[in-house]
Specification:
alpha/beta; 16-stranded parallel β-sheet; two-stranded antiparallel sheet; elongated; TPR_rpt; repeat
C-alpha cells in the first residue's frame, strides 16, 4: 500500500503532467499535449481510487478528448474518452457535452441529439450546469430539423443540365446574380468561377442603403481576379450625394474598360461635379439622372472625347455666364445621341447670359456625327428664332417636349423621326418649307393649338410618295376630325401603318367610313373619342385591305385601342376579336346597385 508521502509525490507528478499538457495545448502542440495527458492517465495515482471518487481521472479524460478533437483522424478516440467519462460519472454534465460535440464533429447530429437527451434524463435538475446541456440540446434539435427539411429540397445546380443552367443564368441581371451567390458557399464559388461575367455590369440601383467604398473595392478586385470580366458598366445607388463624387472618380480611374456610367436621381441637393470625370477617356455612355450644372455638363463633353451618348435629366442653368463655356470648346466626333432635360424651375435663362451659349451653327462642328437630339423643357430654345439643325448631315431623330412658344426647327433631309410634344409653336404660322423625304414617324401630340391647316402644311413638305408610317395626333384639341379629307388628300398617308387620335373628341362613326383608303394601316388608337360599335366595325371591315391582300389575311387591321369609349358595346368587341383583331377596351363597369362606386376594368 502506498504511504501518504508516496501519494503526495504521485499527485504532484499528475499535476505537473496536466499543466505541461495544458500548456502544449495552448501552444497548439497537440502531439506533445497528447503524450502528457496519456502519461498522466497511465500513472498509478489516476487509478488509485476508482469510480465516482476520482475527479482527477475524469478531468484528464476530458482534456485528452479535447486534444483528439484537434487532431486529424482521432475523433473515434475522442468519442471513447467521452464514453469513459460518462461511465465514471453519469450525473456530470461535462461527459455528455463532450460526447455530443464529438458526435457533431463526426456529422452524426441525430446521435448527438440522442446523447444530449440521454444526459438530460440522468443529470439532476438542481445541477447548475444543466442549463448548458439544455441549450445545446435545443440548438442541435433545430439543426437536425433544418437538415431534415433541407433533405426534401433539391439543388437545381445538381439536378438541371448545365445547358439549361446556362440559359437561365445568362438572362439574369446583376441583382439576381448577387442574390444567388448568397444562397450558400457552393453557389457562391460556382457563380464566381463559371459566371464571372456577373461583374461586367454592376447595378446598385436597388440597394437598400448606400453602398460603401469597400463594396466597390470588393467587386473591382473580383473582376481583376477573374481576368476575363473587366467592369464595363456601373449604375450607382439612389443614395448618391455630393460626397459620392470621390467614389465615381475612383471607379473611373480603376476600371479602365468602363464604357457606361449611370447615376440615379440621388438625394436632395446632390450635384454631379465634372472633376470626377477626369481621365474618363473610355466612357461611351453617361446617364445623369441627378442634377448637373450646365457648366459641368459642358466640361464632361470636353473631357470625354470618345463619348457616344449623353443623357442629363436635370440640367441646372443657375450658374454664372462667365463660368459657362459653350460648344466652340467642345470636340465630340463620336457623339451620336444627346438627351437634355432641364430641371424643374431651372429653365429660365437671362438674356444677358445668352452670349456665352453661342449659336446653333456651332453645334455641327462640335458634334459632326450626331444622330439623335432630345430635349425636355429646354429653356434655350425660346431664345432662338429658329433652331437650325440642317448642318447635322447624319441626324435621324429629333424630339422636343416643352410648354414654351418656340418656332419650328430646321431639320436635315436625313431626319426619320420627329416628335414635338406640348409645343405651342404651330399657331402663329411658324412652319417653314423644309424637305423631309425620309420622315417615317411624326408625333405632334399634346399641342393644344394644332389645327387641320397646320398638319396639312407639315405633310405637304414630305416627299411623294410619302414615307410616313406612324402619325400621332393625340390630345390635339384644335383638330376638327369630323371629316378626314384634309388628312388623306394628296396621298401623304397612303402608306400609313399606325394612327393615334387619343382624346380627339370630334372623331366619330362618320369619319370611320372615310378611312377605307388607308390600305396599309395595321393599328389605330382612338381612345377617348365618340366612336361606337358601328364605327369599330367600319374600321375592322374597311381599313388595311391592301395589307390584308398582301399577307393573306381576312382583315388588314391588326389592333385597335378604344379605351374609355363608352359607346362601344361588348358585342362589337367580341365580333372584332373573332375576326382576328386585337381590341384593347377599357370602360366603366356599370353596377346594378345604386350608389355604388364606378370601377374600371379591361374586357
Amino acid at each position: 500500500m502506498a504511504t501518504p508521502k508516496t501519494k503526495k509525490v504521485q499527485e504532484n507528478e499528475l499535476e505537473d503532467l496536466q499543466k505541461a499538457g495544458v500548456e502544449a495545448y495552448r501552444n497548439k502542440d497537440y502531439k506533445a499535449a497528447l503524450e502528457h495527458f496519456t502519461a498522466a492517465l497511465s500513472r498509478p495515482g489516476s487509478w488509485a481510487i476508482r469510480g465516482l471518487s476520482n475527479p482527477k481521472r475524469y478531468e484528464l479524460l476530458n482534456l485528452r478528448a479535447a486534444v483528439y478533437e484537434k487532431m486529424d483522424g482521432k475523433l473515434e478516440e475522442a468519442a471513447k474518452d467521452a464514453r469513459k467519462m460518462i461511465r465514471l460519472d453519469e450525473k456530470s454534465v461535462s461527459g455528455y457535452l463532450r460526447a455530443g460535440k464529438v458526435l457533431g464533429l463526426m456529422g452524426k447530429w441525430e446521435s448527438a441529439l440522442g446523447m444530449y437527451r440521454y444526459g438530460l434524463e440522468r443529470v439532476p435538475a438542481e445541477d447548475k450546469e444543466r442549463k448548458i446541456l439544455v441549450k445545446m440540446y435545443e440548438k442541435v434539435e433545430r439543426k437536425v430539423e433544418k437538415m431534415k427539411s433541407d433533405a426534401k429540397r433539391t439543388d437545381p445546380l445538381i439536378v438541371l443540365p448545365l445547358e439549361l443552367i446556362d440559359l437561365v443564368m445568362l438572362k439574369m441581371d446583376f441583382r439576381s446574380m448577387v442574390r444567388c451567390q448568397r444562397v450558400c458557399k457552393t453557389w457562391r464559388d460556382f457563380f464566381r468561377i463559371h459566371y464571372y461575367h456577373t461583374y461586367r455590369k454592376l447595378d446598385f440601383s436597388h440597394a437598400v442603403t448606400a453602398p460603401k467604398e469597400k463594396t466597390f473595392d470588393k467587386y473591382i478586385n473580383l473582376s481583376h481576379l477573374s481576368g476575363r470580366a473587366p467592369i464595363e458598366e456601373i449604375t450607382f445607388s439612389r443614395f448618391f450625394t455630393k460626397s459620392s463624387d470621390a467614389l465615381v472618380k475612383k471607379c473611373i480611374s480603376e476600371c479602365t474598360s468602363l464604357h457606361t456610367l449611370r447615376i440615379p436621381q440621388g438625394l436632395p441637393g446632390a450635384f454631379v461635379d465634372a472633376s470626377c470625370f477626369g481621365g474618363a477617356g473610355s466612357l461611351q455612355t453617361i446617364i445623369l439622372e441627378c442634377k448637373v450644372r450646365f457648366e459641368d455638363m459642358v466640361k464632361i463633353l470636353q473631357t470625354c472625347k470618345h463619348l457616344q451618348r449623353l443623357e442629363c435629366h436635370k440640367v441646372d442653368t443657375s450658374c454664372p455666364s462667365s463660368a459657362t463655356p459653350w460648344w466652340h470648346e467642345i470636340e465630340c466626333p463620336n457623339l451620336e445621341a444627346i438627351d437634355l432635360r432641364w430641371a424643374e424651375g431651372e429653365n429660365m435663362i437671362r438674356m444677358g447670359d445668352m452670349q456665352a451659349f453661342g449659336s446653333t451653327s456651332d453645334l455641327p462642328r462640335a458634334m459632326p456625327n450626331l444622330r439623335s437630339i432630345a430635349t425636355v423643357d429646354c429653356g434655350l430654345m425660346r431664345f432662338f428664332y429658329h433652331w437650325n439643325f440642317t448642318g447635322f448631315q447624319h441626324l435621324e431623330q429629333f424630339r422636343n417636349q416643352s410648354g414654351w412658344d418656340v418656332h419650328f426647327p430646321y431639320l436635315p433631309p436625313s431626319t426619320t423621326i420627329l416628335s414635338l410634344r406640348g409645343n405651342q409653336l404651330i399657331s402663329r404660322g411658324t412652319i417653314e418649307a423644309f424637305p423631309l423625304p425620309n420622315l417615317h414617324t411624326l408625333s405632334l401630340c399634346e399641342n393644344s393649338y394644332m389645327s387641320n391647316y397646320c398638319i396639312s402644311t407639315i405633310l405637304s413638305h414630305l416627299s411623294s410618295p410619302s414615307p410616313l408610317r406612324i402619325l400621332n395626333l393625340s390630345q390635339c384639341a384644335g383638330i376638327d376630325a369630323t371629316e378626314l379629307l384634309w388628312l388623306l388628300a394628296e396621298g401623304h398617308c397612303d402608306f400609313l401603318e399606325e394612327l393615334h387620335l387619343v382624346g380627339v373628341t370630334s372623331f366619330g362613326d362618320q369619319v370611320t367610313r372615310e378611312m377605307g383608303c388607308l390600305g396599309w394601316l395595321k393599328g389605330i388608337d382612338i381612345s377617348q373619342t365618340r366612336v361606337t360599335g358601328a364605327g369599330l366595325m367600319n374600321i375592322v371591315n374597311g381599313v388595311g385591305r391592301k395589307r390584308a391582300e398582301k399577307m393573306g389575311r381576312e382583315k388588314g387591321v391588326e389592333w385597335v385601342k378604344i379605351v374609355m369609349c363608352d359607346g362601344v358595346g361588348l358585342d362589337a368587341i367580341e365580333l372584332a376579336r373573332k375576326m382576328g383583331v386585337v381590341v384593347t377596351y377599357l370602360a366603366p363597369k356599370k353596377s346594378a346597385l345604386k350608389g355604388s362606386k364606378v370601377r374600371y376594368g379591361e374586357y
